[in-house]
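TEACHING EXERCISE
Course module: macromolecular assemblies
Task: Read the component lines below, then compare them to the predicted structure of the full complex.
Student: A.B.
Group: 4
Components provided:
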Amino acid sequence: MSSTSQKHRNFVAEPMGDKPVTELAGIGEVLGKRLIAAGFDKAYVVLGQFLVLKKNQELFQEWMKDVCQANAKQSNDCYQCLHDWCEEFL
Amino acid sequence: MVDVDNLSDAELRTKLMEYGFPVMPITGTTRKVMVKKLKLLLENKDKINSEGRRSLARYSSDDDSESETKKNRRDRNRRITAPPTILTSSANRSNLRRSIRLNDSDVVESPRPESKPDAKLSKINTISSRKTTVTTSRDDFDTGSDTEPEVIDSEDNSYRHDTSRSFETRSDSPLKSTVPPPYGFLNRSSLSPPKATTTEIPISRDVPSSFVSSKPSPSRYSSYTSASSYSDDALERLNQIRSRLSLGSSAYDKPTATYTSSIDNNVDEPAETPFLSNFTKRLSQMSANSPKMTDYGFKSDIIKENDINGPGSYTRSYLARSGRYRDLGSRYQRQDSNMGNIVRNNMVSLAVVGVAFLFFVLIGVMYLGMRSDSSALDTAGYVIPYCVSNGQNSDKDENCILDNEVMAAITLMKKIKPELERLALKNRCSDPSVKPYLSEDDIINYVTDTQSTQGKRNISQEVNNLELLIFKNPEWGISIVEAAGVVTEANVLKSMKQVKIERALGNVGLAVLNPPLPWSCIISNKLFAIINTAVVVGGGFLLIYGLNFLYKSYKQYQQDQKDEVFAMVERIVEILQNHVEEEKENNFLVINHVRDMIVPISDRKLKQRTWEKAVKFINENESRIRTEIQVVQGEPYEVWRWLGNPNMSSTESPRNKSWQGQAFETEVGSMNSLPCSPTPCLKIRGILNTEAILAKCAIQCKILHCAVDNNAKCIYLKCASQNDAAVAYRNLHGWWYAGSLVTVKYVRLERYMQRFPDSPVYGPPFLRAPASTILT
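Instructor-supplied answer key:
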């Protein structure tokens, strides 16, 4: 990817702490609501799912699509965001 | 195949593992995804299998025909033999197949009477016939005799071929059996156990053996040879089949396998692998040692026969055999039906082609018809309205003609028609100024000129009659026209009354409107027309091109002018700038002097307009130059004063090279900073200026080492202690510097030492902030 969004950079810049799920890149209000409805209210819960899927992009994107009808771009953004975060902090 | 949705977590995991998928924890949230994945994998697997199935059909059909009772097995084979490209519904397909099979069985019946005597023959001499199998098989394998390519070439066609060949080999057999090779003995010895174990009458034992020795051998051997020559291919298929069969674990394979193992000592694979099919064993054995394999194939077949048929079941075994051929035949048949499909699928295109063909045929017929009616001009068959006395339409000169005047009129017609045609031709082809018609007076003159025998009145009467006849006989091709100016279809006279009216005016004429033109004339006319059009079109194009060219050159000229003006403006600005740099206080120049500097004397008149434009442009659009009037050497002149760019001068943008505030909180206790620093080393991104960093935090903490990594675009920082590092972290992390966000993270000490082995381990000396920045 050539450039990342500001949201992505902000998220990756620091430990995620208690950030809500909407702080993740690629997840706006709508997807955030869906995710919260599915029980994924914090970014670290999504991170947990991300890690359970062993950082597998395909599966994670599939899961995103499944749980909140994210499109390819959104799920890819989210995946990249978590992936970069893990590179930085994990 | 498998109900994926209802698998337990563990099963799902094992299944995924089977397909070589990395195993993940199956939890409530991941389950759905994994199930989807597994389905996808299964689908892909099926696709791959179906590709291989075509070639496998032969092998499975072998097994297929053995027993009628193994329904499920059968169904599977049916699926396997189906080519993957046919996408009809399965019910349809099976119906079709069944019907084909019925047909085939009829076909198969035919060789039966033939084979019976042969079977008897082999009954008499069983041992020799068995030997022949071996010899033929050996030929197929080792020497690659003439039979081999034949069989391979005819891979998926007629079983007839196979059978005929099999009879051939049988007839050869006595000759070959005179020299029995070692395989024969081997074979016989391996054969003996089934003889011993099964209790049956000799017929049942011999008949199948003869069949085995003859019919099936070519097909099976050919398949083996192909398998051995493409051993890689075979291994691949073997794997596919293995996986497929291990899932299915058919009941059918079990008994055979165990049976053979109990009988045979040569078989390497004993009963531990009951799920492997006959065929897979055969294949694996073949890869081990090929000659033995042939024995095995032969033997296992016999065993199968014995196993299933029991005593005296000649016909059944035969039927079973024929079933095998049925399969081969069905494949053959299916090819035919494929041909049918091709025709059906291309119905529309064929119809289109047919319609086009018909269309052209029709046009051809019409054309021929048109050509044929040009020969209608003869003496007889004219429509002639004779005058009847007291008849209602007996108005002479108007619509009827006297008996005795008919011949005269017709001769007149024949006389003047060539003349009319000549005139028309001349008018059309060579000289448009010639009148294409003969007026009545012209006709009279013409006739009297050529044969001055009749009176004038007589001839005019004839002409009148002729005109009447012309109306009645349009096929003559002569028209009566107004003899004035150009003759067209429009001024053809329609009735005798009109003729009379026009005659009073004296302009009635005869003309041939559509004379038969000679080829040269047609061609020259066409050529003329074409040239005419070409000239017009070409002229049009030329005109357009010329206009375009003019427009373009005008544009170009304008552009050039503009460029010239701009170049001049640039030079003026340059000159002014240079002048200001040279003389600080006297920063204006007289406009005319500038012109004199730029434009050489010879061009001054020529470039007057350009200069004026440039001056105008500067007055209107150049903010750095002000036009004013100054007294220079006692005379007022218009001058340009260079104002420069006061706004942009000296200072840089305030955004540059400075700390611009904090993006987020990093104080102790904030979630953005760790409670205590793990290492004394930091990696700083978003800034490449070590001085700025030192200026920011060297006052508050002790820094041992600071280095820029230009490749990774980051700065490495090493502090004296972990507390110092924490201070530096808080001071740097989350700050904006020169428009970019600075991020800091901790680096392990050993990593740091790896990267910078020379960095000092302890201080002092510590790095200090540069003096200049401290002041500010």
